């Protein structure tokens, strides 16, 4: 048997090539060899029966935390990549807030070496905007890029200094690297732990106003206009941020944005309903219903370019605490597809737009390879069962951490097969949970 | 059990009927409290642990008194002398205390939701004695009790008669002060609105949390319209430790615009309007001494009723209702 795979009878949804219909995808030598309606299958190839399933480009996630080096008890590059593969993701961008942070090539190289050893997903390191993520001095962007970084971020920490942010945008232009920014004015956040509004008032928790994000988005768009360069707004969460990005795009600024599945699906009222469950605590916090409606609309109309999970693994040591004291963040790689699919059922997104937001959208935003099943492209693809019901439980997660707001919920939609470079990296047993 | 609830972490989850059941039981508890020999064997053999992660004198003493009158063993635990200072988590602390088989944990904690977190990990009953800016349910219950008693007396009920808690329906209560940080305000709001009262909240805009209207409150920023025509006023403590936050420029200005002195009380309040305060009072800031100690003040009634209400809560959560049904000792 050769390494040729025939994926037959599935509905191929590939927005990048404009394909949506039942096709056979032929994978050969690690590449997409053919996508065609009728193909004779030779006898000595592997066949995958994809009837009733979707066949899409592998998902790309511009925003994950793999925790290695430094916090391997939460996640490693290998476990994170395994979780990615199980969720249909074939490529992930690893945020630099590791310990030590990825502000130098030795960290970048370690991440890439671990990713190669795991061989489960393409891992693209993101380097720091500032040395040590301290917001004081620029990191060595050229060195970081040469070592393999595809973007820059101090994610987890906003760049407080407008002057440094200006220089970062300017300097990054030399290397054509996007800056992916965590937008929070920490003085406005104060001791806040959830979105400021009626739910926080009822729970007696300190609120974080939407304006804490919006003032920083406004600042960085003004700086982008001054400097040029490429700005990517990470985990955009408010209606005001949507308005600002929409207007900036209309004026032709080079800005892109992502939204997380949890900000698309949940609101601050879910924090109240959960009665202080820390799996609902994240930064930015779950916002109001009006904010959620705005980010949904913005994703549907393209103002927001893509879905990114902000996969943030934490162990019970950080999460099984009072809400005030618990760490921010939730895991997301293994639930992104069913959560997105629920938006399709609700009429928020078309099927094509959902797939685009997980594939071509992020690939374009960071100018990464992948996100398409065009002939000759690397055979990074996912086979998805849009009807598969499964109960989200800790034992099913490949991530080391289980801090998911969907834990215990019944979800619909599951990735059944993932190929990276033509190699099967994840396969859900028939009837497997 | 209070209704279907094993724990008391707030008044928000309780129905009107569940609240009334506690208040009605508190009436007979108050009678016990006032006896010359105030000890009944009702909770003999039960252990109540007061787990206080924040300084408190009156609430802790009130719970301790309530437990001891009912013959429960009350054990006081404070975080300053505990392993919390060595880095132990709340859940670990609770599990360790639970291993000593208490029947009830009474928890005071600076973080909202802490009693609910503990309740998820232990099998004994949990009572919140105040969590962050969330709720202080027994304070809410004692305020409901005190207000009902006051309104019944003002309506001509004989002294010492059991209050009719239906009297709260249609009454207007003003809550004045730092509502954003007040767990008392939230419990009062839940309790009062469930019993049919109208609630006004008043304070500088920096002390009124966003969306409090959704809890049924009418918001005022000026004192006079907030208290005029009110049947009672709850003055909240200004927390000096928070003046460092830029919520108000200082206590002098606060006192001038949001404090109650004798003149304002005489000119703006109706003759029968009661004044409550969860204590401790900053004399001369939120209340002038003459007002705090004046005829309208029911502040010491609140303290007394606090013990009765806590006796009722401990009784119900320690299985008192169950024992009573089996013909066991009853207060």
Give an account of the 3D structure.
The complex is a heterodimer of chains A (433) and B (331). With 433 residues, chain A is an alpha/beta fold. Chain A has 2 domains: 4-55 and 378-427, Urease, subunit C, domain 1 (Roll); 58-371, Metal-dependent hydrolases (TIM Barrel), CATH 3.20.20.140. Helices cover 31% and strands 23% of the residues of chain A. Chain A has helices spanning 77-87, 105-118, 141-147, 162-173, 186-189, 198-203, 211-227, 239-250, 261-265, 268-273, 289-301, 316-319, 336-345, 351-358, 360-366; strands spanning 5-14, 19-28, 31-36, 46-49, 54-57, 59-64, 89-94, 122-127, 151-152, 178-181, 194-195, 207-208, 230-233, 255-259, 306-307, 381-391, 410-420, 423-427. In chain A, the strands form 4 sheets. In chain A, strands 1, 2, 3, 4, 5, 16, 17 and 18 form an 8-stranded mixed β-sheet that branches. Chain A has a 4-stranded parallel β-sheet with strand order 6-7-8-9, sandwiched between helices. In chain A, strand 2 (19-28) and strand 3 (31-36) form a beta hairpin. In chain A, helix 1 packs across helix 2 (105-118), helix 7 (211-227) packs parallel to helix 8 (239-250) and helix 8 (239-250) runs parallel beside helix 11 (289-301). The mean pLDDT of chain A is 97. With 331 residues, chain B is an alpha/beta fold. Chain B has 2 domains: 7-136 and 304-329, Rossmann fold (3-Layer(aba) Sandwich); 137-300, Rossmann fold. Helix content of chain B is 38%, strand content 14%. Chain B has a 5-stranded parallel β-sheet with strand order 7-6-5-8-9. Chain B is globular. The two termini of chain B are 16 Å apart. The relative contact order of chain B is 0.16. The model of chain B is unreliable at 324-331 (pLDDT under 50). The chains are: A alpha/beta (433), B alpha/beta (331). Chain A binds chain B through residues 196-207, 275-276, 320-325, and chain B through 12, 89-91, 109-114, 116-117, 131-135, 180, 183, 186, 209-215.
């Amino acid at each position: 048997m050769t390494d040729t795979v025939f994926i037959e009878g599935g509905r191929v949804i590939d927005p990048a090539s404009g394909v949506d219909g039942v096709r056979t995808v032929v994978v050969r030598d690690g590449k997409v060899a053919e996508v065609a309606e009728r193909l004779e299958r030779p006898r000595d190839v592997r066949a995958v029966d994809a009837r009733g399933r979707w066949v899409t480009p592998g998902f790309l996630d511009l925003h994950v935390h793999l925790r290695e080096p430094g916090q391997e008890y939460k996640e490693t590059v290998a476990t994170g990549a395994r979780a990615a593969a199980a969720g249909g993701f074939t490529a992930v961008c690893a945020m630099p807030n590791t310990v030590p942070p990825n502000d130098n090539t030795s960290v970048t190289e370690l991440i890439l070496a671990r990713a190669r050893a795991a061989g489960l997903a393409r891992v693209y390191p993101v380097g720091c905007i500032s040395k040590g993520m301290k917001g004081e001095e620029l990191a060595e962007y050229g060195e970081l890029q040469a070592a393999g970084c595809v973007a820059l971020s101090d994610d987890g920490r906003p760049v407080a200094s407008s002057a440094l942010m200006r220089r970062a945008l300017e300097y990054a232009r030399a290397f054509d690297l996007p800056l992916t920014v965590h937008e929070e004015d920490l003085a406005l956040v104060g001791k806040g732990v959830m979105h400021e509004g009626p739910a926080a008032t009822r729970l007696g928790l300190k609120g974080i106003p939407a304006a804490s994000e919006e003032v920083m988005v406004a600042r960085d768009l003004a700086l982008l206009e001054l400097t040029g360069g490429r700005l990517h707004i990470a985990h955009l969460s408010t209606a005001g941020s949507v308005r600002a990005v929409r207007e900036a795009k209309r004026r032709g600024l080079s800005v892109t944005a992502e939204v997380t599945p949890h900000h698309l699906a949940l609101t601050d009222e879910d924090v109240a309903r959960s009665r202080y469950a820390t799996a609902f605590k994240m930064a930015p916090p779950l916002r109001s219903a009006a904010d959620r409606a705005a980010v949904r609309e913005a994703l549907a109309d393209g103002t927001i370019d893509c879905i990114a999970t902000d996969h943030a693994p934490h162990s019970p040591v950080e999460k099984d605490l009072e809400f005030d004291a618990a760490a921010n963040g939730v895991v997301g790689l293994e639930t992104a597809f069913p959560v997105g699919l629920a938006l399709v059922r609700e009429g928020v997104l078309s099927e094509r737009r959902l797939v685009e937001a997980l594939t071509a959208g992020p690939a374009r935003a960071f100018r990464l390879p992948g996100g398409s099943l065009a002939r000759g492209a690397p055979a990074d693809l996912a086979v998805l069962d849009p009807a598969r019901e499964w109960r989200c439980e800790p034992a099913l997660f490949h991530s080391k951490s289980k801090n998911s707001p969907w834990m215990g919920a019944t979800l619909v939609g599951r990735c059944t097969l993932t190929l990276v470079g033509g190699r099967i990296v994840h396969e859900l047993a028939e009837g497997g949970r | 059990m209070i209704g279907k609830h094993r724990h008391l972490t707030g008044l928000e989850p309780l129905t009107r009927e569940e609240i009334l059941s506690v208040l009605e039981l508190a009436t007979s508890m108050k009678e016990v409290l006032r006896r010359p020999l105030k000890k009944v064997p009702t909770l003999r053999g039960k252990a109540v642990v007061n787990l206080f992660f924040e300084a408190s004198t009156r609430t802790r003493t009130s719970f301790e008194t309530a437990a001891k009158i009912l013959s429960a063993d009350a054990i006081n635990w404070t975080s300053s002398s505990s392993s919390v200072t060595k880095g132990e988590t709340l859940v670990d602390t609770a599990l360790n205390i639970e291993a000593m088989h208490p029947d009830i944990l009474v928890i005071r904690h600076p973080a909202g939701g802490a009693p609910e977190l503990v309740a998820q990990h232990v099998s004994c009953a949990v009572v919140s004695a105040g969590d962050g800016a969330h709720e202080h349910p027994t304070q809410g219950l004692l305020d409901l009790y005190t207000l009902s008693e006051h309104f019944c007396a003002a309506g001509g009920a004989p002294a010492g008669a059991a209050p009719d808690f239906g009297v709260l329906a249609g009454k207007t209560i003003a809550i004045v002060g730092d509502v954003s940080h007040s767990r008392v305000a939230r419990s009062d709001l839940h309790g009062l609105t469930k019993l049919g009262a109208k609630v006004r909240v008043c304070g500088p805009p920096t002390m009124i949390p966003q969306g409090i209207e959704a809890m049924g409150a009418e918001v005022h920023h000026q004192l006079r319209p907030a208290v005029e025509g009110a049947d009672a006023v709850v003055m909240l403590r200004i927390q000096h430790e928070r003046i460092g936050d830029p919520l108000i420029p200082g206590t002098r200005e606060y006192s001038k615009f949001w404090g109650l002195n004798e003149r304002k009380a005489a000119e703006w309040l109706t003759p029968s309007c009661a004044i409550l305060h969860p204590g401790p009072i900053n004399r001369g800031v939120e209340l002038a001494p003459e007002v705090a100690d004046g005829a309208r003040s029911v502040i010491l009634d609140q303290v007394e009723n606090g013990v009765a209400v806590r006796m009722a809560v401990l009784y119900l959560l320690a299985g008192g209702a169950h024992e009573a049904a089996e013909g066991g000792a009853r207060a």
